Predict the structure.
Amino acid sequence: MSVFHHTRVHRSEENLAREGQLAWHIAQVAADPVEVDDETRDMIVNRLIDNAAVAAASLTRRPVSAARQQALDHAVSISGAGATVFGCALERRTSPEWAAWANGVAVRELDYHDTFLAADYSHPGDNIPPILAVAQHVGADGAALVRGLATGYEIQIDLVKAICLHKHKIDHVAHLGPSAAAGIGTLLDLDPETIYQAVGQALHTTTATRQSRKGEISTWKAHAPAFAGKMAVEAVDRAMRGETSPSPIYEGEDGVIAWMLDGPDASYDVPLPEQGEPKRAILESYTKEHSAEYQAQAWIDLARKLHGENPALTDPANIESIVLHTSHHTHYVIGSGANDPQKYDPTASRETLDHSIPYIFAVALQDGGWHHVDSYTPERAGRADTVALWHKITTAEDDEWTRRYHSIDPAEKAFGGRVVITLADGSTVEDEIAVADAHPLGARPFAREDYIAKFRLLAEPVLAAAEIERFLELVQRLPELTADEVRQLSIVAKLGVLASAPAPKGIF
């Protein structure tokens, strides 16, 4: 049973001892050698498959290519074997922080991997690239990698349960820096003091504003978690050399809580596992069936259902208005409550469109599904009948859906809402959905075979059949992999695939 660590701001003269600090408690959790249970190990394997799937689908996209080129322009650091880069030959390695960067962008680019939503947002699969990169570099085996990943997921999810960042316009990767640092600490079997210093620096260097997810969303959206992972690797390296970090990073009177979050009178209760308690938080997270913001997943499924039941709804001439009654977060972040004109702009970037629920619902309603490429093309976004339907869709906050969004009861927690479609003749069509079909409580919860099917679907255009089978066979033996086998945990593109991608030049 988790215990709650009470965190509040302390004046400097209070001289808060490190044993009372959240960063210290995180470090203690990371240093706890508790075994990872079978259910958690199996889900970690699923998420490694999931990350590889979405990375494969993004290999030739410009932001991913740019990050990959940056990584490949850096040599392997002298103290290890280096880490692999998605798409490249297994022998082509780079320094672990740069592998974390390149692979982190590849994983995040399509907004298509796992998620956890509570007091804030998160994509805990973002922990995998930095922790795996360090494991490959130092020669850790599969069992050590499993332990490190269990910690990364645990810490990020626990922070997301308790501390809201977006309310203060702080990007959600501020929870990722500390979690990745903690996971690397577990992987390397570091002592609590070293992990504590790394967590402090990782948080200090990864707090940034949410403008990266506001207005016309730029390609930095995919780079932000990769940067947090890269900073986590560097923070651990620095702490291992005996260097210290700002303290108390959360609770100080000039610290994160006092000046970036709820202010000098604020306090939070962060749930963390007790000593000896297995780290199982990954089991509370969920992946995406569709390549879009998680809060759009259930709405895509509902639109798909309505498309099959009533094809007349696809024609804007038949529609007076469509209102999606949903949670505060959905309304204000990806809905009309954001007051972002770009969310209704047919020329908006892909990153913006995947954060526009009016656009997503319109396309899914007309097409009866969603595709990670076709649903975002300029031609698809600019289709006249789609634009006409899209502009009839708005969102509205509903107190009950907001309450359910924030519920701590997994059986009640919901990310959907109720749609009211007013037809041109004055009649209405109403329906609702609580969670996505792929959610653990949804109509078709994702299981191992679904993760594998997603990987095959996304990998087949860019990986050879033998490479798909090699990776799937290897990753499903994760807990028993040797250090040499861990170094093979990557995907190698077909000959010519990477050559077709942009190869931008910079300083490096």
Notes: The two ends are 49 Å apart (CA to CA). The chain has two domains: 3-284, 294-433. Residues 142-162 form the longest helix (21 residues).
